[in-house]
User: Which sequence fits this backbone?
């Protein structure tokens, strides 16, 4: 697999997002998740991304039991489960969460530690200062920020260099192209693209609307509720036809498009099963292919917002 820089290490250009190991998108079990992790490593994936709230620690526990040390591992803290859901970025809370995550991961340090959401009333310089202490103590290799604005990145980076910024980015979510991807490039910060396959919309087969109410957050997400859901399926159908005609898998073409947007971008698709990993074979796209894709799926084609108002809580808006 192609390699890209993440901090002071090279990792596979495609990483792995382990949110689904916590049952966030459907039933799963530990044995299936462990098999999936083995398959990911065999495929050349060397960067794993999880968080303390994925299944309330379940995703971290699975990775800890897997026990593979020859991977670059990221986890996150900052979100306090509700109700009401809130955010904390103070040093005691960050340290407490990190120790809990390390116990579940069965590690004495983590390579990359993200602030999952920024606490609006706390200066980001203070947060960066806390993360700098953890780096100096050897608890973390570097730190990252998630769902932040370019201005926040610059302020934090001036206090202590940021390793990575993680925001949603895909063919149907392109806001980071309005400043954040460019800011990361200019500062030498990796941009980690989560949900690069549109939470299943760019999967092997068209999605069916059978989400588990109260568990799968897509059930109330604007893009997955009607009439938006049907409109989005219809909009993506010609892209599926293009992929079939050119011998690409739909996920492979969608990932290739994301990778083509900058050599500092690392997408982290996720899955519950090893079977889906075969679809991630990155398509070989030339400039004409990218132009064809963007003609079919122009920026802003999606129907519905990427998050509901409730889901947008603590996500920084800058456009």
Assistant:
């Amino acid at each position: 697999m192609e390699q890209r820089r993440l901090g002071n290490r090279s990792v596979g250009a495609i990483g792995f997002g382990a949110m689904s190991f916590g049952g966030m998108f459907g039933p799963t079990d530990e044995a299936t998740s462990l098999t999936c992790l083995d398959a990911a490593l065999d495929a050349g994936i060397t960067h794993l991304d999880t968080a303390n709230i994925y299944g309330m620690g379940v995703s971290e526990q699975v990775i800890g039991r897997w026990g593979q040390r020859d991977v670059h591992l990221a986890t996150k803290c900052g979100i306090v489960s509700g109700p009401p859901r809130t955010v904390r970025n103070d040093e005691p809370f960050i340290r407490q969460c990190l120790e809990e995550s390390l116990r579940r991961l069965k590690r004495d340090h983590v390579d990359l530690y993200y602030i999952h959401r920024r606490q609006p009333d706390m200066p980001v310089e203070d947060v960066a200062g806390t993360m700098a202490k953890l780096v100096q103590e050897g608890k973390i290799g570097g730190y990252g920020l998630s769902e932040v604005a370019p201005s926040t990145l610059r302020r934090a980076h001036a206090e202590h260099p940021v390793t990575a910024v993680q925001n949603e980015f895909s063919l149907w979510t392109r806001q980071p192209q309005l400043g954040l991807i460019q800011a990361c490039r200019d500062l030498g910060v990796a941009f980690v693209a989560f949900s690069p396959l549109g939470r299943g919309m760019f999967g092997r087969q068209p999605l069916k609307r059978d989400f588990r109410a109260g568990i799968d957050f897509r059930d109330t997400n604007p893009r997955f509720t009607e009439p938006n859901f049907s409109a989005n399926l219809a909009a993506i159908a010609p892209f599926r036809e293009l992929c079939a005609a050119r011998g690409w898998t739909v996920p492979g073409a969608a990932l290739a498009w994301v990778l083509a947007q900058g050599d500092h971008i690392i997408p982290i698709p996720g899955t519950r099963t090893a079977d889906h990993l075969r679809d991630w074979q990155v398509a070989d796209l030339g400039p004409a292919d990218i132009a064809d894709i963007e003609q079919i799926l122009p920026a802003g084609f999606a129907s519905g917002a990427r998050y509901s108002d409730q889901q947008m809580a603590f996500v920084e808006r800058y456009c």
